[in-house]
Structures are given as structure tokens and as C-alpha cells.
Amino acid sequence: MANKKIRSSNLYLPGKQWFYRASLVMMLTFGVALVVMSKTNNPAIGKLRTNITDIVTPVLSVASSPMSAIHNFGTWIGEMARIREENIALKNENVALLAWQTKAKAMEAENQSLRELLKVVPTQKSSYITVRVVSDLGGPYIHSALVNGGKAAGIKKDQAAISDNGLLGRVVDVGDSSARILLLNDINSRVPVIAERTHEKSILVGNNSDAPTLSYLAGESKIRVGERVVTSGDGGIFPAGIPVGIVTSVHKGVVKVQPYVDTTKVEYVSVIDYSF
Amino acid sequence: MIQPSKRLELLLLTALPALITLALAIFFLTSKHITGLNHFMPILPLIPVFYWGMAHAREMPYWFVFAVGLTMDAVMGMPLGLSSLLYVFFLMMLHAQRKYIHKEGFMIKWGYFALLLGVTCALNWIMVTFFNARTEALMPALLQWVMTVCCYPFMHKGFDALYEYISSRRWQILHGN
Known about the structure:
The complex is a heterodimer.
Chain A (H helix, E strand, L loop, with lengths): L1 H8 L4 H26 L3 H39 L1 H36 L8 E6 L11 E4 L12 E3 L4 E8 L4 E5 L6 E6 L5 E5 L7 E3 L12 E4 L11 E9 L2 E6 L8 E6 L3
Chain B lengths: L3 H26 L7 H4 L5 H10 L6 H15 L5 H20 L4 H27 L6 H37 L2
Helix pairs in contact in B: 1-3, 1-4, 1-7, 3-5, 3-7, 4-5, 5-6, 6-7
């Protein structure tokens, strides 16, 4: 009888069966409880999540270094291969930029004198906290990134995260030494934006695809393909004027926007410390 | 009487499958800078869970698989506990059929892995759809399943060699040369 019992269990001795089964039931119950609490946005779950990410972030930071080095080496090889063409292009660009610089300086001086004349209240100046992306940018169902800076570095919830090309997303979770950035294309992302040419305000809504869409546009919208979209500053979370993306399609009232930031190439991000 | 150094080596040999799973989980979570890969990155940690859960069940305990799932959920921003539940379910299903498949050849094991993974991915999709109250795209889940199934043979062969090494080394330590 005893032998039969051992054979049927196959994995554990009969004396340990009760412990094995009880622990399995407890684990499943704990798992279900966690999922239910996640669904109800229980604060304890947020705390548990940030505690885990605080522990894991240093490990991921070290583990992601070789991948970053390989990526940087690949980029360097690519740059070396086209260095001559790039040099010619940069020289041409430099000539154009110098002309722009002259115009910009004149406009800056004019702008300053007009502001003084009108006694305009100066806008809040932003400061930046630069951190490194240590995790992969989510999976099939979620698009977020973990960075190696948290409360200790001055990062707070809802701050905007930008890379060199434009807006990347916003901070949604902050631990002591880690923070999570929700990317623009995540289904839970909502960013108030404005079309640069038509000045039409709308909300950029993520849809888990590479092209988020504009919502709450007026019925007869004049937005066209190729139009730049920037943050509107409404709500006071994001500073106004951060480049977001470019309109790539307008079809049956659905306006798709291609974000400027290529998330796969982002290594460092700047979190904007901005208060309205 | 086993020497302390040999005892430590035995401990390391026992922990090796778990350490490999952990290393693959870390690799899965780190940024790889490859466009689009995060949409269908193979679920690499489930391959050692399957292999060692089949070959040497005690070296892939439920609590460890639960902890790996929990860590992955926390880092990826998924609902906490979702992957833990799915991975424990994956291991439970594996153990339920282990006595029938354990001695079978590679093709049967690969087929069973594909089936179990398919069920796990489908459950994941259903739970995320329920969680977000929105029908999620099926294609990324399907691609992730295909990619993981395609990775399995390479890792299986590597784990076969490792299993041989661990078994022989353990025998040497316990029974001498």
C-alpha cells in the first residue's frame, strides 16, 4: 500500500505530501489575491511592486550593460561606415543652422523686450534628472520601461520622461531607486497634445500598437498627414511644447500619430521636474 | 562523510537549474535594443522550467517558479501575480502528465511543451483581456508562442548535456570515482 502511494506521488515522499499540497494551495490563493488586488489598484500592491523593482533594478542594470555595449558597438560600426557622407551632410547642415542662429538671436532679443514691455509672468523653469533604462520595454500587452533612478534621485509620479527626440512617456510608479515609465503607445497612456499648425487640442491615446491615436478632436478637424504634434501643457503635468510625434494617417476620423522617439534605441531618458 | 567543499558543490549542482532559469529571466527582462522584439520575445524561463520540471522535479520547486513569475510581473508592469499563477499552473500541468512523458523521446516532449505553452499563452491572453476590459491583439501572443517553441530544441539539447554532467558529477561525489 505504502509502495503504491510512493509510486503514485512520484515526486514527494508521502510524509511530505500534506505540506506540498498545502503550500501549493496557499500559493495559488496568494496569486489569485494578488491579481484581484492589482485589478482594484490596491496601494499595497503598488508598494510590493516598487519594493521588488528596487531589489531587481541593480541586477538588471548590471545585466543590461553587455547588451548596451553590443548595441553601442553596432551603432559605432554603422557610423564609421558612413562617416564621409555624414561629414558632408553635417557641413551643409551647419551652414543652414548658422543662418538660423542669427535669426534666433534676433528673435530672442525681440521676444525679451516684448515680454518686459507686457510684464509677462515668467513660466516655471524645469530641471532634468537623467536616468538609464534597464529593462525591456514591456511585452505584447504592456509598454513600459524601468529606469535606475527613483525617489532618491528626485523622481516623482506623473513627471514627463523625454529622450533626445521628444516625449517618451510619464512616470507611473516610483520606488526608492527605481521608477517605471509608461510609454506613449501603452493602452493606459493619455497625453494632452496640440497640433502645431492648426492649434487643435486633443488627447493622444495609446493602443498597444506603434501608432497611438488622437481622441476628442472636433468634428471638422483640419489636421493633415505630416502635421507635428506637441504637448499642450493642459493639466499641468507636462510642460507645453515637447515634441510628441507626427501625424501619419487620417482616415474616417481616426488620426494616427507616429511618436518621434524610437523606443528600442532609447538608453538614457530625462525626467522633467516641472510643477505648474 | 562528505567534505564541506564537496557538500557545497552538491548544493551548487542542485541549484544550477534554478540559477539557469533566473539567468534566462534576467535576460528576458533586460533591454535588448532590437526593434519590435519586445512584442514577441520568447518566454525563455519557461523552457528550463519545463525541462527540469520533467527531468528532476525537485530541482524546480513551485515556490521558485512562483517567485520568478512575481518578479517578471513587477518588472514588466503586468498585473502582479498573473505570471506567477500561470507558471505554477504550467508546472502543475507538467507534473500531472510527467509519469507518461518522462521516458518518451524528444519529439513527444517538444510536442507536449508546445501544447502546454499554447494553453499558458491562451490563458495569459484571456486574463489580460479580462484585466484590461478590452480584447487584446492575438498576433503578438501567437508570435511569442511560435518563437518560444522554436527556441526549445536548442535549449533542450544544451540541458541534456548539462543533465548528464550534473548526474555524473553527483554520482562521483556521493560514491567516489
